[in-house]
Specification:
Elements (H helix, E strand, L loop, with lengths): L2 H14 L5 E5 L5 H10 L3 E5 L3 H8 L10 H11 L2 E4 L7 E4 L14 H10 L8 E4 L7 H12 L6 H4 L6 E4 L9 H7 L2 E5 L2 H11 L7 E5 H32 L3 H8 L22 H8 L5 H32 L7 E5 L14 H12 L3 E5 L8 H4 L4 E2 L2 H7 L2 E4 L4 H4 L10 E4 L10 E2 L2
Parallel strand pairs: 1-2, 1-4, 2-3, 4-5, 5-6, 7-8, 9-10, 9-12, 10-11, 12-13
Antiparallel strand pairs: 6-7, 13-14
The structure holds ligand SAJ.
The site of ligand SAJ has 20 residues, from α10.
């Protein structure tokens, strides 16, 4: 950056009275990078930290290593402007935001090792007056645990659990709540829940987020903020499980679940979500387990919802296998002569993200559980992931799949699939998990 650009930025910061001159975002993934970029776009100097050297290089070159609409432009502009810089080694800053993964281990035990590693990385550069905010979706108590790790690493500083409002370091939990695919808009527009370890911690975090948040910044304590994030995703999971359970019931009772939900939702106080092939992504299928793990006796509904949603792909697989058998026996041929085409592989419509996708899981499982030939149609990717390609699945376009398939398996309601209902030839079976080609569920056209 030229001195002139730097001077201009500094004077802009002064003009707008930004509460923090330099912040550091630790973890430059699906949440950390957009957050860093949005802060930087408001004139804040942002140091992004990530252990992945490739990600760091890519960002410093003004490009991105993840998929999110418009993020490339914001990152490009911020690196050009000099407000965003990435590094693998933390540097001093006034505020640190931690946005690292929190997966679970065996037995759905939350894995906080990425948070612990981030804490150990920033501890040496922490200074009196700094704010540390945890954004990662976390089990209740994680913020207190983070504060304890920091206190152990820096006995020369005081923390809220020791010094209350007078602590040297302020600590808060502030969960991200943005929808993949709409991250840049939702980061700015959504309300933010801010749970400081003390009211002064909350105030500091609130001032930080107000740099770009147009929604309301609502203050609570750290535990409630942690539980709030888990509750939002568990609520959605339970509601989808309700729809998925209805889809099994309706299949048995020969009722269209799609028509049923549409009709029930006409009631002014009923709002059922949609059934599908299962629940995917890295949030809704994971976060409810953080509640179940901490309170297994109490979280019975939340656990059951998880089990129902995890069961749904297996139910779909059985449907496909039964359909293959049915077509083969009607034709008097072997199953290897039957073609199944799967429409959609991503974890939800109109994205290219295959991670934790029930559609992908179904197709992969089918490669080992049916002799039928398998085709896949996925308009949002260029090539099949190795785990499908190596097992004989072929990526084709929708027209070829429609022409060749004896069993049409609609898994994701991508826009091109929603555009029209393809005519069904004699003897073809349609298994529509999203109710866009077959509002009556599974039907056989004689
Ligand atoms: N799904 C259904 N039926 C529905 C809606 C969704 O089967 O009616 C399925 C989707 O196909 C997908 C899964 O659920 O497989 C999850 O998709 P989603 O769009 O519900 O959620 P995510 O995982 O993309 O994002 C969620 C959001 N949480 C809520 O809406 C409460 C987002 O706001 C969170 O920030 C995000 O999790 C997160 O990072 O925690």
């Amino acid at each position: 950056m030229t001195p002139t650009a730097q001077d201009e930025r500094k004077s802009r910061q002064r003009d707008r009275r930004l509460p923090f001159g330099r912040i550091s975002v630790v973890g430059l993934g699906y949440i950390g990078l957009p957050t860093a970029a949005v802060f930087a776009s408001r004139g804040v100097e942002v140091i992004g930290v990530d252990v992945n050297a490739h990600a760091v290089e890519t960002i410093n070159a003004g490009r991105i290593h993840i998929v999110e609409p418009d993020l490339d432009m914001v990152v490009h502009a911020a690196t050009l402007e000099g407000t965003l810089r990435a590094t693998t080694v933390p540097e001093p800053a006034e505020a640190f935001l931690i946005a690292v993964p929190t997966p679970f281990k065996d037995g759905h035990e939350p894995d906080l090792s990425y948070i612990e590693a981030a804490v150990q990385a920033i501890a040496p550069v922490l200074a009196k007056g700094n704010l540390v905010v945890l954004e990662s979706t976390s089990p209740v108590g994680a913020t207190e645990q983070m504060a304890a790790w920091l206190a152990a690493a820096r006995p020369d500083l005081t923390f809220p659990q020791q010094a209350g409002a007078e602590s040297d370091i302020r600590i808060a939990y502030c969960p991200e709540r943005v929808l993949p695919g709409h991250v840049l808009r939702e980061l700015v527009e959504n309300d933010r829940v801010i749970g400081g370890m003390t009211p002064r911690c909350s105030e500091a975090a609130c001032a930080l987020y107000k740099t770009f948040v147009m929604g309301e910044c609502v203050i609570t304590n750290a535990r409630t903020a942690e539980m709030c994030k888990l509750t939002e995703n568990a609520f959605r999971d339970v509601n989808i499980a309700f729809a998925n359970e209805l889809s099994l019931i309706c299949d048995k009772l020969q009722i269209s679940v799609w028509e049923l939900i549409t009709l029930a939702n006409r009631h002014p106080r009923v709002n059922i979500l949609q059934s599908g092939p299962g629940v995917g992504g890295h949030c809704i299928a994971v976060d409810p387990w953080f509640i179940v793990n901490r309170t297994p006796e109490e979280a019975r509904l939340i656990r059951t919802a998880r089990e129902i949603n995890d069961f749904k792909p297996h139910w779909v697989i059985d449907k496909v296998r039964a359909a293959v058998e049915q077509v083969a026996s009607a034709r008097g041929c072997v199953q290897a002569e039957i073609t199944v085409a799967a429409f959609g592989l991503t974890f939800k419509p109109d994205i290219d993200d295959l991670r934790e996708s029930p559609a992908l899981e179904i197709v992969e499982h089918l490669t080992g559980s049916t002799a039928a030939r398998l085709l896949a149609v996925e308009p949002n990717i260029e090539a099949l992931p190795e785990r499908l390609a190596a097992r004989g699945v072929t990526l084709v376009d929708a027209d070829d799949a429609l022409r060749e398939a004896d069993v049409r398996l609609l898994l994701v309601d991508h826009k091109p699939f929603r555009a029209s209902v393809p005519p069904v030839g004699r003897g073809v079976i349609v298994i529509d998990c999203k109710g866009i080609w077959d509002r009556g569920g599974q039907i056989e056209v004689p």
